[in-house]
Amino acid sequence: MSDYSRPKGTQDFLPEVQPYWEYVRTIVADLAREYGFERIDTPIFETTELFARGVGDATDIVEKEMYSFEDRGGNPITLRPEFTAGVVRAYIENGLRVQPKPIKLYSIGPIFRHEQPQAGRFRQFHQFNAEIIGTPSPLADLEIMLLAWDLYDRLQFRGLSFQLNSTGCPTCRPRYVDALVAHYHTHQDRICEDCQRRLQRNPLRVLDCKQAQCQPVIAAAPKISEHLCDDCAGHFSELLGYLDALGKPFTLNHRLVRGLDYYTKTVFEVWAEGIGAQAAVCGGGRYDGLIALLGGPETPAVGFAAGLERIIMVMEAQEVPVPPLPTPPVLIAHLGAVTRLEAVRLLAALREAGIGVQIAMSKSLKSQLRQADKAAARWVLILGGDELARGEVTVRDMASGSQQTISREGIVAWISEQLQHPA
């Protein structure tokens, strides 16, 4: 046993799970391009203030979950706990605001949160993140929601539906928050300690509480849909009309607020059936005030994020088939020291021709054939003393077990022809 083990809440992604990761990343990239999104990659770490201000210093992420430290220059740094704040910073800093709107961006990569690890939840995990920046239109909300839907549909998740709410805007939300706080003050002795704290710092978050003692208070709480201004109500109504027209099932969830302070108007989750107690597979919403909050011009935007670990966990559990990763079709076997140099020359010649090839590294032919079988090689090129003397190569077909000899000068062309025109 090693003296070292991986940090709590992290994973080693071994070769046998890589086909799932490659498949999901390919689906994500293809789908994003079909929808007209362009890729953006931002640093894994940013200044701590960016997340504290952008995500909200009263959120659980900022209060409890960020990996923050000082670098050697004494600068406060945080490993990114989510993508959007960094994407907005890049949008402002790199002058993307002068480009024609809307701008459609996506990212994929690791995220870090110091949470209690559980099934499908880790301290280092990976997200697919998508943003549409520069338009207030409900069509942008719809486009983001359809992108999320199509992702899970292509990955064969069953029973998809939306959970949907509007959290209002700076015009109408304060009135709702006042009503919510007033309601909770009449039940102060019945709510948990977390909700008592949230009521002071981030009142909307009380609606997301999972404690049993708080459920009757939440059920009786006023609904934000009854306090929306005309603009927010019209925006939400138009979005619901689009979903109805497309036949996408949705449920109005008045408790849905999400865990980030920057959301305005639309918030949503995609739910799926048959994946255990946690039906929500991803979520997002509109954040019209975030770009201005971080120093840019007033700019509307909407986005969502999906966790890849959770996707792959469900695919494995439901035995969703994924294609195997491609492997080099050729392995060169060599018998004895005298043939090794010629095997190396043949290795170089095949690779120069763009043919995937490995060279055996054990001594006996039996061991080398076992290596070829494990590597899923299609052909083994055998170089022994007799082949070397005759200027030939013995080609073994690993599927049929048949063998033939090909001239050393013609072997590269023969392999190329077979790969271009398989039988």
Task: Write up this protein.
A hairpin with a 6-residue loop joins strand 9 and strand 10 (280-286). The protein folds into two domains: 15-172 and 228-317, 2-Layer Sandwich (BirA Bifunctional Protein, domain 2); 330-418, Anticodon-binding domain (Rossmann fold, 3-Layer(aba) Sandwich), CATH 3.40.50. Helix 1 runs antiparallel to helix 5 (138-154) and helix 5 (138-154) runs parallel beside helix 9 (230-246). The chain has 423 residues and is an alpha+beta fold. The chain is elongated and about 95 Å long. 37% of the residues lie in helices and 22% in strands.
Radius of gyration: 28 Å
The count of helical stretches stands at: 15
Major beta sheet, specifics? Answer: 8 strands, mixed
Q: Spans of 5+ residues with little confidence (pLDDT < 50)?
A: none
| CATH-assigned homologous superfamily of the largest domain | Bira Bifunctional Protein, Domain 2
Which structural class matches the secondary elements? alpha+beta
Strand content: 15-25%
Instruction: Compute the average pLDDT.
Output: 93
Tell me how many strands there are. Answer: 16
What is the terminal separation in angstroms? 48 Å
CATH architecture group name of the largest domain: 2-Layer Sandwich
Total separate domains = 2
CATH topology of the largest domain: BirA Bifunctional Protein, domain 2
CATH class of the largest domain: Alpha Beta
Strand order of the largest sheet: 1-5-6-11-10-9-7-8
Instruction: Characterize the overall form.
Output: elongated
